[in-house]
Amino acid sequence: LFTEFKGHGGRAVEVVTGSHTTADFEKYATMAVEFDLLASRVSDFHSPEESRTDLGTLPVLAARLKPVWEALSDRVLLPA
Q1: Which of 17, 38, 46, 50 has its Cα between 20 and 30 A from that of 56?
Q2: C-beta neighbour count of 38 within 10 angstroms
Q3: For 48-69, what is each residue's pLDDT tens digit?
């Protein structure tokens, strides 16, 4: 699946999400490194009543990963 994803231009994978287990975090981190993909983390937080994960409780990305937001660091943000 990851080979196909890269072949179609895929550049990043969500490594840490509110629906992943600790084993999933490691599996997707390993795949990100193996396939040279950028990595992201998301809370999947929608509201206190709806979400399974509280804001700020998910782990940070492993140091061996390149965060997707680093690929955006050269972009200029326009004022709102």
Answers
A1: 38
A2: 18
A3: 666 566 666 677 888 999 999 8
**Amino acid identity of 10?**
G
Residue 55 confidence (pLDDT): 64
Using CA atoms, how far apart are residues 80 and 71, in angstroms rounded to an integer? Answer: 22
Do 66 and 35 contact (CB within 8 A), yes or no?
Answer: no
Q: Which residue has the tokens 């709102």?
A: 80
Structure tokens at 44: 């999947």
- Give this prediction's pTM: 0.76
- As a whole number of angstroms, the distance between CA 16 and CA 45 comes to 13
